[in-house]
Write a structure and sequence with these properties.
The complex is a heterodimer. Chain A is mainly β. Chain A is built from nine helices and 40 strands. In chain A, the strands form eight sheets. Chain A has a 22-stranded antiparallel barrel. In chain A, strands 1-6-7-4-5 form a five-stranded mixed β-sheet. In chain A, strands 23-24-28 form a three-stranded mixed β-sheet. The longest helix of chain A has 20 residues. Chain B is α/β, with parallel strands linked by helices. Chain B is built from twelve helices and eleven strands. In chain B, the strands form two sheets. A six-stranded mixed β-sheet of chain B has the order 7-6-8-9-10-11, sandwiched between helices. In chain B, strands 2-1-3-4-5 form a five-stranded parallel β-sheet, with helices on both faces. In chain B, helix 2 crosses helix 10, helix 5 crosses helix 12 and helix 7 runs parallel beside helix 8. The longest helix of chain B is centred in the first third of the chain and has 22 residues. Chain B is globular. Chain B starts with a helix and ends with a helix. Classes of the chains: A mainly beta, B alpha/beta. At the A-B interface, helix 1, helix 2, helix 3 and helix 4 of A face helix 1, helix 4, helix 8, helix 9 and helix 10 of B.
């Protein structure tokens, strides 16, 4: 590694001159020698040659985009700031190939629909989402309750989005893509910060404090959010959150990291125009928390070990009481039918408790300068208590074990090979392996071509594998089967994992101030999991089935090809003007008849997004965002919606008055006030304005 | 801006003058050395390695007549030195502080001494430069600039953070940068809370961060935020020590114990017969290059072999020497 000096007489001569320069420093600047105070005399050799904690160890160093085995979009703090978003999922509009829909839907779906390449419902179950390495997708329906994450936007450092399957690194459910949210290290933000937002339908405030006590750096953020949701929908959200992170530096090569998060609050649920009988407008309570500990051990300059354990707990309490059912029974079944009902109303209690324990060990190392490897394993247990959904008061458990490995081999400066695989075993689908491989060819430092193939599996979630959801209506009718049964879900179980094979050609190029990331992809999806009406349902004794209603059951049916093109351009138009431009063309083709309905339209054929930022001076800056999605019909609760064009503007002024620094900004979303529909026809969006204040002290 | 050429010439003359004065007015010539006493602040690996390398250097140059004695300050409070017949090499600030209290005629050479600490001790002990000198730990700025040029030939703007100790060097740094074709932008960090905001500002505006030793800016505590933040900005940090490179800086020029022992041995040999005439305090003459190839790879910076970089640096030094003429 090191090179010791050679004795070159010429160099000695050269040194004389340098020595003289030093004398100049010593002699001509008297203050140099005279600048003597305690701080100066306290400078010791340790300040120069003393040991420094290992910071950028192999596991912290990511591959450059041109070496990565798949397309990765990185959204940094600055982009998040410039976009002016208040809801985290909105940021994914700036990732090519993503569909984001504001949705004020039904059960558990009063949530943004976020999908990559479509083919999912409001639950968006086909993506892996991680916050600092902690998986936050729900085993219940596979998606993420974005508003329930104990995470403040102000704490996010960057978001890495892998476009395409990446099971070899992140495991099953890293199916269409992976979102990896990384928060700021506690040492990166010291002092106090207040962030407050006020605007149409929105009030929120956060307070953050970060500090250091000896070798412990910490940060905690607490906040309250009021979101009134969309007009004419019962989709309000009130959320209290607390997040804490700490890093304890044991010595130069060991540290312990801790995280803790908490959210609770109320959510509007139920909308009178969809269900005016049973699931009426009501308020649901949520209560979530998580705890994480991670030990990072730097074995050597080229080798790292980490051990991570976390626990998360999500609870929601939902209870609904129907209207008086007797008049309805009279109207449907004939006069007098209502009199046979045991009660006027029925009450449905729907508590859901999900708990996750996860332990993961990982070893990263390099062999020479050409090979980098990571391997590891994890075990996980999810527990699910959801009597209304699962039809049982017993807690169900889902166990998962994983082994993974990945190698990056830089054969020579111009060629990088990546290969990896993950083997996993779970209670639903048994053992499977997901491999992937890619070749990156870099004819010059500013151009890279990537040829990749990647596979992934999507394990069925509880909705698809174990739901047994029904509503029982007791009657006083004679006979043993006198309870009416409205069966909504009855999963047969034994659903196979859905499979994707993704092939792609990527190109990354730098042309002066323009950087380009493009890819052509061809994905094959087989064993698609969908919900089908079940015809072989056997009514349990004591019940009489109400017919004419679909009994949903998860099943493997159909396959599809998804072809398309994606491009992302970052262009520095002038020294203070930047443009981020994204385009995606996604074409879903069913290759089996069964995959009908709206699968083909479940992704807008073309999506465009752009963010133009300009800094006028050190205080003022402005940004303009443009989002366009072509017509689409999302699955599940989705309805056909038209082409959407949306413009947002943001104007910000920084201020700095010594101790108080900060920024005031104003955002207008949907500048031209198009009353467009997103995801479903009941979600109508109009112009909204907000003002935001950030204060650092 | 100071015209260093003119100043150098001026000082060359002046130095000659001083030398003459010293020769004329010294009351008596001290005796030639019979030996070297190396004073250790502590028996650290670095210090012990230095002793070994120093001895080996004497053997290699066939200077067997110089006897080497070692005093460890952790073992003995009192320095017992044959004050008129030995050269004292003090390893570390603590050792140099102790040595500065020896008789004024004892030649003392500090090694592993930061320049500010040397200046401070020089002032306190009221010693003359010809009897109290040092090989300071501070690498010359032009050498650090050369490393930047060798590794990142495309770089144009260098960001530098200076603290209270190093802030007086800003003019000099800007000038050295200019000579290397680099524009240097300096941010002064006056208090701890300014560090991260100023660092971010610097990273936004520049191609890299060049670390200049200053305990107010670079210390054990700030390594993590500085290296993490720089990495977030995908900007390389050029460090000043091997450990900073191991922690996550892209590269550094530094002098290892062997480099410093060689230079110290040269001084000991050269001044053996004229102990009253230590060379002026000087920067490390021999140096090594350390590159963090993992960081380079992650930042997508193509890096040549370490010895190639080293050769390039020697070329730069030679060229600079020619230009200076």
């Amino acid at each position: 590694m090191t090179q010791t000096a050679l004795d070159i007489t010429k160099q000695v001569n050269a040194m004389k001159k340098r020595i003289l320069l030093l004398i100049v420093l010593f002699a001509i600047h008297p203050q140099f020698a005279l600048a003597e105070d305690d701080s100066v005399s306290q400078v010791s050799e340790d300040d120069y040659i003393g040991d420094v904690p290992r910071v950028l160890t192999v596991s912290r160093l990511s591959q450059p985009l041109s070496d990565a085995p798949s397309a990765v979009t990185v959204i940094d703090r600055e982009t998040i700031r410039a976009s002016g978003i208040v809801d985290l999922p909105e940021i994914f509009r700036l990732v090519p190939g993503f569909y984001v829909g504001v949705n004020a839907g039904y059960f558990h779906s009063t949530n943004h629909a976020v999908s990559y390449h479509g083919m999912t419902s409001a639950y968006s179950g086909a993506m892996q989402v991680l916050v600092n390495g902690r998986s936050v997708y729900s085993p219940l329906y596979g998606g993420v309750q974005w508003s329930e994450l104990p995470l403040a936007i102000v704490d996010i450092e960057r978001i890495e989005v892998t476009r395409g399957p990446n099971a070899a690194s992140y495991g099953a459910n890293s199916y269409f893509g992976v979102i990896n949210i990384i928060t700021q290290h506690p040492s990166e933000a010291k002092g106090n910060t207040v962030v407050a937002t006020h605007g149409d339908g929105r009030n929120e405030a956060f307070y953050r404090h970060a500090g250091k006590v000896q070798d412990l750096t910490y940060r905690f953020t607490t906040g309250y959010r009021e979101d009134d949701g969309l007009d004419h929908r019962n989709d309000f959200k009130r959320t209290r959150m607390l997040n804490a992170q700490a890093d304890y530096q044991i010595d130069i090569s060991n540290n312990l990291e801790f995280e803790f998060g908490l959210t609770d609050g109320a959510r509007g649920e139920g909308n009178i125009n969809e269900d005016a009988v049973v699931f009426l407008p009501r308020t649901k309570q949520i209560d979530n928390h998580y705890e994480l500990a991670r030990w990072r051990h730097n074995i050597s300059d080229t080798s790292d070990f980490s051990l991570q354990a976390y626990h998360s707990f999500d609870r929601s309490d939902d209870k609904t009481t129907s209207v008086n059912l007797r008049p309805i029974a009279d109207a449907l079944l004939g006069a007098g039918a209502g009199a046979f009902l045991l009660n006027d109303t029925i009450t449905i209690k729907n508590p859901v408790e999900t708990e996750r324990y996860d332990l993961e060990a990982q070893h990263n190392f390099a062999i020479g300068n050409a090979i980098r490897m990571v391997w590891g394993g994890s075990i996980r247990r999810d527990s699910m208590y959801a009597p209304h959904y699962l039809g049982t008061k017993r807690t169900d458990y889902f166990d998962l074990q994983r082994l993974f490995g990945h190698v990056e081999w830089r054969t020579y400066e111009k060629l990088v090979l990546n290969a990896g695989a993950m083997m996993e075993h779970n209670d639903f689908t048994g053992t499977d392996i997901s491999p992937r491989a890619s070749i990156n060819f870099k004819p010059s430092p500013s151009h890279a071509f990537r040829l990749g193939i990647s596979t992934a599996l999507r394990t069925p979630n509880y909705l698809e594998e174990k739901f047994n959801r029904s509503i029982a209506i007791p009657t006083t009718l004679p006979g043993p089967n006198n309870t009416l049964l409205l069966q909504l879900y009855a999963d047969k179980g034994n659903v196979d994992p859905e499979q994707i094979i993704s092939r792609e050609i990527g190109y990354l190029g730098n042309f002066g101030n323009l950087s380009l990331d493009t890819r052509l992809f061809h994905d094959t999806i087989t064993d698609h999991i969908r919900l089908r009406d079940r015809t072989d349902f056997v009514t349990p004794p004591g019940f009489t089935l109400i017919t004419g209603v679909d009994i949903n059951s998860g099943t493997n049916e159909g396959s599809a090809n998804v072809d398309g093109f994606e491009a992302q351009a970052k262009w520095q138009l002038a020294s203070k003007t930047n443009l981020l431009f994204n385009y995606a063309y996604v074409h879903i083709r069913e290759t089996q008849e069964e995959l009908k309905r709206n699968y083909i339209d479940s992704m807008p054929r073309s999506t465009v997004s752009a963010l133009l930022t300009h800094r006028f001076d050190s205080n003022w800056d402005a940004s303009f965002a443009y989002y366009q999605t072509s017509e689409t019909t999302q699955l599940g609760d989705g309805d056909p919606v038209d082409l959407i064009r949306k413009c947002d503007i943001r104007l910000a002024r920084k201020f700095n008055s010594g101790r108080w620094n900060g920024e005031v900004s104003g955002v207008i979303e949907n500048l031209f006030n198009d009353h467009y529909q997103e995801f479903a026809d009941y979600n109508t969006l109009d112009r909204r304005a907000r003002i935001n204040l950030r204060l650092d002290f | 801006m100071i015209n260093s050429n003119a100043i150098s010439k001026f000082f060359l003359n002046k130095l000659a003058c001083y030398t003459l004065i010293i020769i004329l007015f010294l009351p008596a010539w001290a005796q030639a050395y019979t030996g070297v006493t190396i004073v250790l602040s502590a028996p650290t690996t670095t210090n012990l390695e230095f002793v070994e390398n120093f001895k080996m250097e004497l053997i290699a140059t066939k200077n067997h007549n110089l006897k080497v004695k070692v005093i460890d300050l952790q073992e003995t409070e009192k320095l017992v030195v044959a004050e008129n017949s030995e050269l004292v090499i003090a390893l570390g600030v603590k050792a140099l502080t102790a040595a500065s209290k020896l008789k004024h005629t004892t030649p003392v050479l500090g090694v592993f001494t930061p320049m500010p600490a040397f200046n401070s001790l020089l002032e306190k002990s009221k010693r003359d430069l010809d009897i109290f000198s040092a090989i300071v730990l501070d690498q010359p700025y032009w050498r650090q600039i050369s490393l930047v040029r060798a590794i990142l030939p495309g770089a144009k703007k260098v960001g530098i953070l200076l603290g209270s100790t190093s802030s007086q060097n800003s003019e000099f740094l800007i000038e050295e940068g200019e000579k290397g074709g680099l524009s240097v932008e300096i941010e002064n960090v006056n208090q701890e809370s300014e560090l991260i905001p100023k660092l971010k500002k610097s990273l936004e505006n520049n191609d890299l961060l060049l670390a200049i030793p200053d305990p107010a800016v670079y210390n054990r505590e700030t390594a993590q935020p500085i290296l993490l933040t720089s990495y977030r900005y995908l900007k390389p940090v050029f460090g000043y020590s091997q450990s900073y490179v191991r922690a996550g800086a892209l590269a550094a020029v530094y002098s290892n114990t062997k480099d410093l022992a060689k230079q110290a041995a040269e001084i000991a040999i050269k001044t053996q017969l004229a102990p009253g005439l230590l060379p002026p305090p000087q920067a490390p003459k021999y140096f090594s290059v350390q590159v963090n190839h993992q960081v380079a790879r992650s930042l997508n910076i193509p890096i040549m072999e370490d010895d190639e970089i080293y050769k390039r640096l020697l070329q730069f030094e030679m060229m600079q020497h020619v230009e200076a003429r």
